[in-house]
UniProtKB/TrEMBL annotation:
InterPro entries: MATE_euk, MATE_fam. Pfam families: MatE (PF01554). It is a multi-pass membrane protein. This is Protein DETOXIFICATION. The chain crosses the membrane at residues 50-73, 93-116, 128-146, 185-207, 219-242, 262-287, 299-318, 347-371, 378-400, 406-427.
């Protein structure tokens, strides 16, 4: 009976508030220049409060793998190549799937926060953990049979058998999205930075001091990732979130079908993005005398990933802002957040066309996640990347003998087309309609929970 009353209490909060929205938007759309400047400054502050720690977190967690490569690089060229292959192919694939599956939580948690439905955040996070853990069971064979597969690529047996941060990934991303939706990112940043420092020390002890080589590097990375996850779990369940974390609930096992659908759409959207660059490396490897070309492209992409960390911070920020405002039924504010984020993302990215495009794309992806457009963006990615970009790169690289330059140009053309299509979709969107859809989705979820209880 208590649970029914609690569920009934949620429904009035979901009812539209046209008067509140009208007043809010009327104030927002003032033509006064000073007011617009103040609103821009306020929105920029909100954006950077999320983006800054998100950038540091992304850099710190990416650097865990980078530190591993740095220490293994002192062991020899074969060992370095082995680790690079595992990280770029196997771990890159798994990381993309887990991040994509977890990003569905950004949509639901962000909109729930905007609607004031903090009670649902813990349940959403538990559902996401269930889905990502089940997904790891399907991905586990990749690790089990990694040794014979990677042996064909002259991969080290130790590394292929000892990469076990798969389950850490599965829990890491739902926890991050739970914290991110509530703008509680600084603790996550501190955890990541502290673990990164410990990871350096651990690699020095195991790889350099004790001479454990690849085995030591693998153990160090596994320990570090699990420390990140366990520290975040302790933070979540220690009473810092009395409204959004009320303990484990059987409700997490209900209404999983819709959650799985959104998670799969999120995973496909992101993986199509990540695999695009992986295929580019494989295409370059088919050129004559590919060693130098592959090394050059790999270096370029590693440098690009570092710059991408800044854009990923804006990805987190804009997805939170858009989902929060849509959940609160403030469509014009959500649209204004998009404009401010795109303007912010362009600052300092004039070094190269690739960096420029990738500073905008994560912002647009964040908008898509916040609004729940993952399936549509996945279709756009297929068309722009795999139907247009890669064939064009192959044509320029192989047919016209432009080599790396041709393949890279095709990749850039696909990125440019995708960016243009996404920007057109974002700026032509009916944000009032999106806010109503978000509100309707929250009502439907509460209705299902009520009927099932």
């Amino acid at each position: 009976m208590k649970e029914i009353k609690e569920t009934q209490h949620l429904l009035p909060k979901m009812e539209p508030k046209p008067l509140e929205v009208e007043t809010h938007e009327a104030h927002f759309s003032s033509n006064n220049g000073k007011n617009l400047q103040e609103k821009t400054w306020e929105e920029s502050k909100k954006m950077w409060e999320i983006a800054a720690p998100a950038i540091l977190t992304a850099v710190a967690q990416f650097s865990i793998g980078f530190v591993t490569v740095a220490f293994v690089g002192h062991l020899g060229e074969v060992e370095l190549a082995a680790v690079s292959i595992v990280q770029n192919v196997l771990e890159g694939f798994v990381y993309g799937v887990m991040l994509g599956m977890g990003s569905a939580l950004e949509t639901l948690c962000g909109q729930a926060v905007g609607a004031g439905q903090y009670e649902m955040l813990g349940i959403y996070m538990q559902r996401s953990c269930i889905i990502t853990l089940v997904t790891t069971l399907f991905l586990t064979p990749l690790y089990i049979f990694a040794s014979p597969i990677l042996k064909l690529l002259h991969q080290s047996k130790n590394i292929s058998e000892l990469r076990r941060e798969l389950f850490a990934y599965a829990l890491n991303f739902p926890l991050q999205k739970f914290l991110q939706a509530q703008s509680k990112i600084w603790v996550m940043t501190i955890i990541s930075l502290v673990v990164l420092a410990f990871h350096v020390l651990l690699n020095w002890i195991l790889v350099t001091k004790l001479g454990k080589g690849l085995l030591g590097a693998a153990i160090a990375e596994n320990i570090s990732w699990w420390l990140v996850v366990l520290a975040q779990i302790v933070y979540v369940v220690s009473g810092f979130f009395p409204e959004s974390w009320t303990g484990f609930s059987l409700s997490a096992f209900k209404s999983l079908a819709g959650f799985v659908k959104l998670s799969l759409a999120s995973a496909i959207m992101l993986c199509l993005e990540l695999w695009y660059f992986t295929v580019v490396i494989l295409m370059v490897g088919l050129l004559k005398n590919p060693e130098v070309a592959v090394d050059a492209v790999s270096i370029c992409m590693n440098l690009e990933i570092w710059t991408l960390m800044i854009a990923l911070g804006f990805n987190a920020a804009i997805s939170v802002r858009v989902s929060n405002e849509l959940g609160a039924n403030h469509p014009k504010t959500a649209k204004f957040s998009v404009v401010v984020a795109v303007r912010q993302s362009r600052l300092g990215y004039f070094l190269a066309a690739t960096i420029f495009l990738n500073s905008i794309q994560p912002v647009l992806h964040g908008v898509a996640v916040g609004a729940g457009w993952q399936f549509s963006v996945a279709l756009i990615n297929i068309g722009c990347y795999y139907v247009f970009g890669l064939p064009l790169g192959a044509l320029l690289g192989y047919k016209f003998n432009l080599g790396v330059q041709g393949i890279w140009s095709g990749m850039l053309a696909g990125c440019l087309l995708q960016t243009i299509v996404l920007m057109m979709s974002v700026f032509r969107a009916n944000w009032t309609k999106e806010a109503l859809l978000a509100e309707g989705a929250c009502e439907y979820i509460c209705y299902l929970s009520f009927t099932q209880k």
